[in-house]
Each structure stands twice: as C-alpha cells, then as structure tokens.
Amino acid sequence: MADGGLTIFNGQQIRVADLSLPESDVTFTGARLLDVADSKVSSLLSGLSLPDSVKSSALKRVNVGDVDGFRCAELDRQEASSKFKDYVIAIADELEFIFGYWENAGKENKLEFPNLRVPLNYKSDDPIAASVLDGNTLRLFLADEDDFAMLAENLFTDLDIEDTGKISKNNIKNALLHMGVDMGIPPFSEFPQLDDILKKHGAEGEEVLGQAQFAELLQPVLQELAEALAEKHVLVIHDIKCCNGSKLRKLLGDKQQLNNVLEKITLDGPGNTKLVRDFLKKNGKDLGLPTAEANQSIYDEVFLAVGHEKNDKKLENDEFETLVKEILEKFADELEVNPVLDI
C-alpha cells in the first residue's frame, strides 16, 4: 500500500469477511477474545495496527464499559462468538471512512504532510483524519543521497542546541521524535519496535557524535524502520478538524442557536455585512468555519457573492437575519464542495 495511492478503509473489508470465532479448546477470556479479534482485523486491513482510541470506541459500541473486568471474564463458546462478531463489526463501524490524499489541499500542504489521509465522507462534524505509515516516505528520503544528507544536516542543526558541533548518541531518538508522523515516523507508543531498533544499532548513551557520524548512525536506523513498517503498517489517528459545512447546516436548522448567534453579532453594533464578517473572523471556528487568516479566499468569495451594498447599511432585524442566513448558507455550500482541513 503506497503512500501515493488511494486506500479505502470503509469497514467493508471487515463486513464481507468470515467473522466466525476460530475453533479452540482453550476457554475464552475477554482478553484472549480481544487479542484474536484485533489480530483478525489487522489481517483484513493489510496488517494495519489500529490505535487504542479506535479499539476503545468499538468497545463502547458493544457496551463494554469496564474493560479490565471484561478482560478477566471467562466466556462460554456461544457468548464469546457473539461478542467477537459484535466487537469486530463495531470496529468496522468506527472505520467507516475513506482515506485519500487531501485532494483540495495545495501542493505545498501535500509536501508538508506526505502521509496524511482524510475521509471523503465529509458529512460528519468531526471526520477522522489519519496517517498510514508504511515506510514509503522513509524510503524516498533514503533513496536520494542529497535528500538524506539535507535531512540529517537539518536534524543535527536543530538538535545541536549549544552549537558545539557535537551531540550525544541518544539524540537519535530525539531526531525520530523531531521527524514525527509527517515524515513517516510512528509514535513510540504505537510502535514499540522503535526502541529495539535504536538499541540494536547502538543509538543510545552519551557518546558524542559529529554531523557525519550522526548521519551514519541515523541511516541504518531509518532503513530498518522502513523495512519494519513495510511488514506491519501503522495507522495514526490525528486530532484534526475538517470544516465541511455540516456544523453550519445544523446551526441553520436550529432556530434557537441561530438567534443566539444573531444576538452575539449585534452586540458590537447595528447589523450589516461588515459586522458579520468581523464577527465570523473572530468566532467562525466555533460555528464550523475555517480560520479567516489561512482561508481568506473563501471569505472573500462568500462576501463578494453577498454584495458590498450592505457593508455599512444598518439593517432591520428580519433583513439582518436573512443576510446572516444567506452568508452561512454560502459558506456551507462552499465547504461542502471544498472542505478545509484544520491542522
């Protein structure tokens, strides 16, 4: 599964699979059931390791509140089979989204976040965005000597805080943390093998390294990590919001919420277009709008469509409410067609 392709994880791979609990003479505990289920799901999703947040949400779907208690519980065959299927289907429900590159982002953003995948079912208020780390980004860095040399130089410079030209071996771990998910490095919490790789290559301790020695040590660490990720991909869920118009639609459909917004806008003066724009620039994020600073063109397009003749004209209450609705509806229409990722 290459970083550059379109990979769909909408739960369908799980739903069409045989979800029968494997035969076993061993009594099933909750812990064993979850291990078997997680392994089954991983095999159906190209070896992806699901983050704990997805598993936790799936357990809540099947009414497992006391996870520790469930893990210790013994289940008969019928109960285990039922819970196994329910839990796996719950994971499919959690993963009912489509990963794809952020087609509406500019080239600059795609380069800055090469692993970023986002759902295309933008109807959710907070759709999931994730990175699928399969080692491909690291292989691209390693394949080009100039790219790797620049990467190593930049990392060394950033880590050499005192500008001595020397840093300790244990800064290799800091280099990986510095690279992060955006450059293909999984969190240590999601990929414990990272510590083993560092130890294997002697990337520990206080022995000092120059820039060249740092690069020589970093290279095999990244190579082995890329190979490990190729065998077992890592899925990293991001705390990222997607402005897609759905939150605005809910606001427009709720008379009380809309009235509250109208009252807040007019606290700063008589209702007019300029007042609405100033309010949305300050408070739009709470309503489901992207930040004005980074998305000026969207704001310009919407308010240009509304017209400038109402910029300074004081409007009566009914007329002002109509104006606000028109502006919010235009934003919702625009964001539905061209969602904005809030990173």
Overview of this protein structure:
With 343 residues, this protein is mainly alpha-helical. Helix content is 54%, strand content 9%. It has 16 helices and eleven strands. The strands form five sheets. A three-stranded antiparallel beta sheet has the order 5-6-9, with no helix packed on it. A two-stranded antiparallel sheet has the order 1-4. Strands 2-3 form a two-stranded antiparallel sheet. Helix 3 packs across helix 5, helix 7 runs antiparallel to helix 11 and helix 8 crosses helix 11. It is flat and about 70 Å long. The two termini are 24 Å apart. The N terminus is likely disordered.
Low-confidence segments, ≥5 residues, pLDDT <50? 1-8, 97-124
Q: How many distinct helices?
A: 16
Number of distinct beta strands: 11
Query: Strand pairing plus helix content: what structural class?
Result: mainly alpha
What is the string of helix and strand elements? EHEHHHEHEHEEHHEHHEHEEHHHHHE
Radius of gyration over all CA atoms, rounded: 25 Å
Spatial gap, N to C terminus = 24 Å
Beta-strand percentage range? 5-15%
In which order are the strands of the major sheet placed?
5-6-9
What global shape is seen? flat
Main beta sheet: strand number and arrangement? Answer: 3 strands, antiparallel
pLDDT averaged residue by residue:
82
Percent range for helical residues?
40-55%
